[in-house]
Design a protein that fits this description.
The complex is a heterodimer of chains A (166) and B (110). Chain A is of the alpha+beta class and 166 residues long. Chain A is 17% helix and 36% strand. Chain A has 3 helices and 9 strands. In chain A, the strands form 2 sheets. In chain A, strands 1, 3, 5, 6, 8 and 9 form a 6-stranded mixed beta sheet that branches. Chain B has no helices and 7 strands. In chain B, the strands form 2 sheets. A 4-stranded antiparallel beta sheet of chain B has the order 4-3-6-7, with no helix packed on it. Classes of the chains: A alpha+beta (166), B mainly beta (110). Chains A and B meet through strand 4, strand 6 and strand 7 of A and strand 2, strand 4 and strand 5 of B. Strand 6 of chain A pairs antiparallel with strand 4 of chain B, so a sheet runs across the interface.
């Protein structure tokens, strides 16, 4: 740029940056691929360790086997449809409730399967979904309570015919 | 595929006030998987799958799901809610092709 930096031009540029920040244009990192634009940052092709690190950071995760009831068939004949039910024995009051339940399938290409957000109106921390499993894998349920505590339970599912393909 | 977006919601009958009710819903949707070419490279296109499901009861949010392509074709979801009054349960699905599907089912007290 050949022009000299006067006070007026400098202020003008600062203003433009300010508008960009306010509209959120600078806050969102560019999506990795064209697909990612609509896919949110939830499901990426990555190993499960990276996925857990990305979603939960380094936050400590307690063993929640006693509280989380993970209901999955131990042997899934068809990996394309595996019913998963997660029930958490925890109060659902505005003061303390289960905020989020993640379902994670370790060996899937996209390990984060679903994220369920609950409210105290649910009355019971319960979600169910049909998921795909590519191969025999551990399935985890990670539960975040309203105070930020993370609990995790996992169970192995044997898959006879994988359902992820691709 | 004219059936895309067809939703079925099942609520139990004979509900009493204060009951915890489990609602099941199912949507007809292809939930396209990532495809690869012969070299194993991912074909980059906008796959059509559902990214968000929201459920409300009496206008208040009860549960919301954020989904990835690891969810089955014709996905089914269930969630719980505390029945406080007779009223509608509304479930909305949003997919990556801009489709928005919703259905309302009333909870009736027995």
């Amino acid at each position: 740029m050949a022009e000299t930096l006067t006070r007026r031009t400098a202020l003008g540029r600062l203003g433009a940056v300010g508008v960009a920040v306010a509209t959120g244009a600078l806050q969102r990192p560019a999506p990795a691929g064209a697909q990612a634009a609509s896919a949110t940052a939830l499901g990426l092709q990555e190993p499960v360790q990276d996925a857990l690190k990305r979603v939960f950071g380094g936050r400590p995760m307690k063993d929640g086997t006693a509280l989380i009831k993970l209901d999955i068939p131990p042997i899934a004949e068809n990996g394309a449809v595996v019913p998963v039910n997660v029930e958490v024995t925890a109060p659902m009051t505005p003061a303390s409730y289960v905020k989020t339940i993640w379902i994670v399938a370790d060996k899937n290409r996209i390990p984060i399967v679903a994220k369920a957000t609950l409210t105290p109106e649910s009355g019971q921390a319960f979600v169910g979904a049909n998921i795909r499993l590519g191969e025999t894998t551990d399935v985890r349920a990670v539960v975040e309570q309203s105070d930020g505590t993370l609990l995790m339970a996992k169970r192995e599912v044997k898959v006879t015919v994988g359902g992820c393909g691709g | 595929m004219s059936d895309i977006g067809k939703i079925r919601i099942r609520v139990p009958s004979n509900v009493k006030a204060g009951d915890i009710v489990r609602v099941r819903c199912l949507v007809i949707h292809p939930m396209e998987r990532i495809e690869r070419d012969a070299q194993g490279k991912i074909i980059d296109r906008n796959y059509n799958y559902i990214t968000r499901v929201t459920a409300t009861y009496l206008g208040k949010p009860v549960a919301a799901f954020d989904l990835t392509q690891s969810v089955s074709e014709n996905p089914a979801f269930s969630f719980a809610l505390k029945a406080t009054a007779p009223g509608p349960v509304k479930v909305t699905f949003v997919d990556t092709h801009g489709g928005k599907y919703e259905r309302t089912e009333d909870i009736v007290f027995g």
